[in-house]
Structures are given as C-alpha cells and as structure tokens.
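Reopening closed ticket. The problem is back. First fold of the pair:
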Amino acid sequence: MRISVIVPVFNERQSILEVIRRVEEAPFEKEIIIVDDCSTDGTADILRQINNGRVRVFFHKQNQGKGVALRTGFQKAKNDILIIQDADLEYDPRDYPRLLEPILDGRADVVYGSRFVGEGPHRVVFFWHMVGNKLLTFLSNMLTNLTLTDMETCYKAFTRQVLEQITLEEDRFGFEPEFTAKVAKLGVRIYEIGISYSGRGYKEGKKIKWKDGFSAIRCIIRYNCFG
C-alpha cells in the first residue's frame, strides 16, 4: 500500500535535504509532500531545485503556522495512509515500519509514535520540556479517556477515512491536542508505539516555546469540552 508523508517546513535549510533523503530511503511506496510555510532562510530556494516525481513541493506566500501547512499537505495527499514528518532531524523515518504495522495489519486507525516508551535511542535533552509534554499528555488523557504517553509527538499515522471525519482548525502547534481530541471523539482504534528520538536545542533550531504550552492547554480544554 502506498503512503503519503506530509512534511511541513519553516526555515530548515540545514536539514531539509537530509530529511527528504531519509524519507525516500524508508520502506513502502510513498509520495512525499513538502509544504514550505514561507521560509526566509533559503529553504524555499533549496526546495525549488527539487525536480523528481517522488517529491511534491508547495509554497505558502506568507507564514501561517504548522497547522495550516499540514492542512495544505492533507489536501494534496493522494494515498489512503498518511504520516506526519517534521523537517528537522529529531524523528527517524526508519521507524515507519513499526509505526505503520498496526494500521497495515488491520488493528488500528491511528498510531502515535511515543518518545517516552520503547527501546530506541533517545538523545538526552531538556528536563522541563519532558515535564511539560507529560503534563499536557496527562491533561489530554483526563479529558479524552485515552492512555497515551506522548500526545505532543510529531509522529502520527492515520487513515484517510479518519481524516475525512474531522475538521481541523488550529493554525500552529495546537494541531496536536486538537487532532487527539477529535479522533478520540470518533471512537476509532488508536495505538501507540515507541520510537527513537534525537531532540535538538534552541541553538540547533528548535522552535516550540513555552507559550505554545499554554496554547496547547487552551486547545485541550476547547476541543474536549466545547466542540
């Protein structure tokens, strides 16, 4: 079965070609959909030079946020299974087989790749980021009645049938709690597998900030309690 890999990009000129190479090397027939969210560091120039049938690149004329870039990618995707892939090097496409296995064998409709379980290598990074992620996941689980260990993970794989049953609204990083709340309300089969993780620091280009954590709390409450 063919898959669609959705890659939202903003100012990742140092990593974007390596990410594309790693995704191309991952097993499974696939289309790679890159959505550049108006990068200003030369990323867009690099992407404009790509000319092959395996990678499709789309450009936003102004920066709108990760959630908007994902919605653009979802609209362009042609296949029945979708995977979200960040454009940095924190997540390893070699985890795709394990991420997709529960969907391909008919057990799952949505699969989360958790950074906090499993035996894969994990770079040691920020303690308070870990605490923040676990707090957000705990709050989300309280309201969704799920038992996830990593709601905020980038790696989410899901079927087109699931995607077509929800309407996504968040423009930035609020996508993660919004998506989780909405798939939980659908009652679909959700699995979680451990993945490797090579987290980076702010000097290396990490973008998420503490204020995004407060936004995530707002989204958890909004989409679980009010619609």
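Second fold of the pair, where the issue appears:
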Amino acid sequence: MACDDEGTLARCLGSIAFADEIIVVVDAKSCDQTEKLAMELATRVEIHPYRGDLEQKRFTSGLATGKWVLSIDADEVVSPTLADAIRDAVAKPSAVGFEMNRVAWHLGRWVRHGDWHPDWKLRLFERSRARWVGRNPHGRVEVEGAVSRLEGDLLHYSYRDLADQIERIHIHSSQAADALYAEGRRARLSDLVLRPPARFLRSYLLKRGFLDGTVGFVVACAIGYSVFLKYAKLWEHARRPPA
C-alpha cells in the first residue's frame, strides 16, 4: 500500500525484487510520483480509495495470485538477512504464517527498546489460510495453522521527522476513535487521566525505552499523547450534534 511515498517506494520494492509478483495499491488521494514509480517497478498497480487500514490490506491481499503473500508497507524494507529467510521459508515451509521483527528508524537512530521493539509482525502467509482482522488503523493477519518466526529485520522508516509523526498521530487517533465509537465504546474521565501516563511509563520504564536515550523519551511521550488523543476524540464523538 502506498500514498505519497515517492521517497521510500523504490527502496521498498527493490528489497523484494526476488518476489514472483509485486502488487502495489496506491491510495487514490496520492498526489506525488508514487503511481509513476510503482508502474516502473511493480508487476501490477491498482488505484484504490483508502477506506481504512484493514479494508486496504484485505483488498491488496485479494489481488495476489500466488500461494504465498508477503505484505509490507511502502515505508518498510526487507533486510538481506530477512530476504534469505523468506526465500527459505517459502521453499521449505514449516508453518502457514511467519512473523518478522520490525525495527524503526526515527530521529537519527534505530529504536530497539520501549513499545516499538521487539515488534513481531505476521507478514508472510499462505493466502488461502489467512485473513485480516483487528481494528483500524492497525489490522493484523490471523492464519489457520502454525506460525513461526524468521531471522532478520523488517526495517521501518516510519516518519520523516517529528512533525510527520505528530501529523500521523492525529490521523491514526481519529481512525481509532471512530472504530471504538462504532463498536459502542465510550470514553470515561479515567481513560483520559490514567491511560496516557500508563502507556508512557510502560514504554519508557517497563520496556526500557530510556535505553534509547532522548529518542526513547520522545517516543514514549508521543505514545502517551496518541493514547490521550484517541480517548479525547472518542469522548468528543458523544458530544457532536446529531447528523
């Protein structure tokens, strides 16, 4: 999936050049050179309006024709070690789904502690035995059968800078609040008061985000802020005038 990702798409697709087919779904709102790059580097390109993370990933996986699907985003790169592990897993499968550890590059360093790491993602799976589940903005894959883990990192160039991170926090917190509201959830004062600092403390202290220095502190603060916004927007939902 891609949207305004001309700065990362070529690196992403180059890291999976070993694949039998490369399918790129470009958000219809994309306005840079993403579509042009995808046309040059991918097997198939589809323009599709973004209706949510789950919906977009279900649509993308549904376009695949092979037995195995490797699902990655335009800001992710398969490391050489991981590429070798993927090829071996597909050639001699020991499971129907495989997790890979994602490591994020942010503010000048790899983040290897806190809530961001380890970050195991099930991204390689048998198409006929998998389905996308969960809640927007973060879907996940469930498979019918055994799951194993692969060596090597899935490199995640998550944000251009801090401003980009804050912008996406606003987008994702709105999507999360909308999904919770649709499920009938409502925000309480305790959600606003207790959940944000609890998530900060979990990331910074319990999961040792402090070992990433100032970056670890910034990441933990951003996580707490995103949790606050999610529940504040959920609280706001109940106070909107009826349509």
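Update: turned out to be a display glitch only; the data is intact. The radius of gyration is 19 Å. Strands lie at 23-27, 44-48, 68-70, 76-78, 97-106, 109-111, 120-126, 130-135, 138-143, 147-156. Please close again.
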